[in-house]
Amino acid sequence: MFLLLLFMIPMLFLVSVLVFLATAEGDLTLLLKNHVKREAIEDKASFLDYWCEPRNSCTVSFSGGLLFIDCCEIMLENNCNNFLFLEGEILAKQLASLGAKLIISARNEAELERVKQQLKGKHAPGGVRILPLDVKSSEDMLAEAVEKAESFFPDSGVDYMIHNAAHERPKTSALDATEESTKATFNVNVLGTISLTRLLAASMLKRGRGHFIVISSAAGKIPTPGQAVYSASKFALNGYFHSLRSELYQRGIKVTIVCPGPIETYNGTGSGSTERRVPAERCAELTIIAASHGLKEAWISNQPVLAVMYLVQYFPTIGFWLMDKIGAKRLEAVAKKGNNYPWNLLFSNKKRT
């Protein structure tokens, strides 16, 4: 009996680990946090740039004083299933419900008013501020927007900011990406975000504190056939903000990078696909958990994308071999508007010409 128990205990542990990994929606560190630190959000001011054309993603910052959420456009054409769909509106609703003070920003003021009236919380909708902003504006205009955002809460300023800028054209092969689409993607995903960060960081450094939460993508961690330019922009974003944290951490500046995989949006994007996707509401919740706990990096995704991220991160030779094996097949699936990463990509033996 004793020997049987010695055998069964590790087996049960192994089965539990496998079940956990199979059903996980994020990396182990993130899931172990399990809850939002409400005290990091309640009564903190949040700046949300909510640019929807026709959909949007956003950046959020919060905790010490002002939470700045910058939402930039994500272009959807031909009903392509994008790697990252994190609704600024969902994020704003969850933050408002946690008692955050919000500044929402976009080009469309009427849309901002609509969002404002739907927010409910300790400071919403009455205390929600509206600030028109286009992340692709000149640096002078961005500087004016940052100055105005900080003036809404002069006692605290912007202490925490989450970026979730995302611009994507239809999926295509790396060699078919045009110069125009490449520049458009980098202008929003990288250059606009960096400009806004640099302008805001100056004020944070004067106060000796600040926290950037960057909504990147799983495409910024692993090769993404069919989305090479988008993937390149997210790798660039990760590199910049990890470097920024290393340079400024000793001066009170923190950075959290969140990398979501396929997300099921509330309007049904991703529905009709056999690919498992994390619901947008859960993605927003996990983003806030990661930010409120000050994690340096967090992954949000179902399998098999999460497993590929682990392989590329910890066993790069195996991870890149796997991506090379399925890359051409995934590009073909993308052309047919199929799943991003169906399991059968791993087992198909069909030769490519």
Q: What features would you describe in this structure?
A:
The protein is an alpha/beta fold. The protein has one domain (26-304): 3-Layer(aba) Sandwich (Rossmann fold). It is 44% helix and 15% strand. Helix 3 (88-97) packs across helix 8 and helix 6 runs parallel beside helix 7 (228-248). The radius of gyration is 21 Å and the shape is globular.
Short descriptors:
353 residues; Rossmann fold; two-stranded parallel sheet; 44% helix; 15% strand; NAD(P)-bd_dom_sf; signal; Short-chain dehydrogenase/reductase SDR
Write the topology of this structure.
Elements: H1 2-23, H2 28-33, E1 45-50, E2 55-57, E3 66-74, H3 88-97, E4 101-105, H4 109-118, E5 129-130, H5 139-152, E6 158-163, H6 179-207, E7 210-215, H7 228-248, E8 253-260, E9 263-264, E10 278-279, H8 280-292, E11 297-300, H9 305-314, H10 316-335
Parallel strand pairs: 1-3, 1-4, 3-6, 4-5, 6-7, 7-8, 8-11, 9-10
Antiparallel strand pairs: 2-3
Give me the CATH fold name. Rossmann fold
Count of helical segments?
Answer: 10
Query: Can you identify the CATH superfamily?
Result: NAD(P)-binding Rossmann-like Domain
Give the assembly state of these chains.
Answer: single chain
| Sequence stretches where pLDDT stays below 50 over 5 or more residues | 50-66, 70-86, 267-272
By CATH, the architecture is named 3-Layer(aba) Sandwich
Residue share in β-strands = 15-25%
Tell me the structural class: alpha/beta
Mean pLDDT: 79
Number of strands: 11
Largest sheet: 9 strands, mixed
End-to-end Cα distance: 58 Å
Tell me the Rg in angstroms.
Answer: 21 Å
- 3D shape: globular
Summarize the amount of helix as a percent range. Answer: 40-55%
Protein name: Short-chain dehydrogenase/reductase SDR
Keywords: Signal
InterPro entries: NAD(P)-bd_dom_sf, Sc_DH/Rdtase_CS, SDR_fam
Organism: Dillenia turbinata
